[in-house]
Amino acid sequence: MLKLCHINKAYPMGESQLPVLKEVSLSVSKGEFITILGASGSGKSTLMHIIGCMDKADSGTYELDGVRIDSCDEDELAVIRNQKIGFIFQKYHLISQYDVLMNVMLPLLIRGQTRASALPEAEETIRKVGLWDRRTHLPKELSGGQQQRAAIARALITKPAVLLADEPTGALDSKTGQEILSLFQQLNEAGNTIIQISHDLNVANAGRRILYLQDGILSS
Questions:
Q1: Helix, strand, or coil (residue 52)
Q2: How do residues 77-118 score in pLDDT, each as one tens digit?
Q3: Which of 31, 122, 177, 204 is the most exposed place for a label (fewest CB within 10 A)?
Q4: Helix, strand or coil, per DSSP, at residue 17
Q5: For the whole prediction, is pTM greater than 0.85?
Q6: Which helix (H) or strand (E) holds 197?
Q7: Strands 162-166 and 85-88, bridge-based pairing
Q8: 126-135 b/e with 16+ CB inside 10 Å = b?
Q9: Domains contained in the chain, number
């Protein structure tokens, strides 16, 4: 379902290049829940940006759900991000002036659906993440865990090929973080493919497979 082969990425540093990812290869099957574990500076965020089609590798190939990502232009990548990838970030990135319901509906509205057709899908997804009684609340009226649940619902609404979670519990206390990880496990058991990136082994253990990224090199 997702396959990266010999991915390399470097960033300019003065007159030289700083290698960040080195010959990274990764295969993820539909329905997997994997964690890419690594310390700060290991290349985790760069790898997440490439998997999430927010950046391109310098070399190597990337196929997602049957599409050759490395051959896509920017317009095609924007469509793929909207239709095939659900993003979950450490800082939620909810729109402050919109309530939970509108935040969750937004990806469908961007896709071109009408509010009338998007509303029942949003309501169903909000129920799925256990946030129904907060659907009319603004982000500032929610706890950190509730905001992350709203962000997860927003990521799920498009029925993406893969959910990408970047340090999803990093801004939460341990109890709330565990609740979010339990929700991920439930979503995975329901068939969702999840890739999470973390520096925390306790978070990594929530997944079914752990890969290690160190100095730009990925290993099992």
A1: coil
A2: 999 998 899 999 888 899 999 999 999 999 999 989 999 999
A3: 31
A4: strand
A5: yes
A6: strand 194-198
A7: parallel
A8: bebbbbeebb
A9: 1
Residue-range definition of the domain harbouring residue 32: 2-93+148-219
The answer to whether 63 and 139 have CB atoms below 8 angstroms apart is: no
Token pair, residue 156, equals 């799920």
Closest to 212 in 3D by CA, of 54, 28, 49, 204: 204
Residue 67 phi/psi, 5-degree rounding, is: -110, 130
Sequence-distant (6+) residues with CB within 8 A of 69 are 53, 62, 63, 77, 80
Extract the runs of DSSP E, i.e. beta strands, from 29-82. Answer: 33-37, 59-64, 67-68
In a domain, 110, yes or no: no
End-to-end Cα spacing for the chain: 19
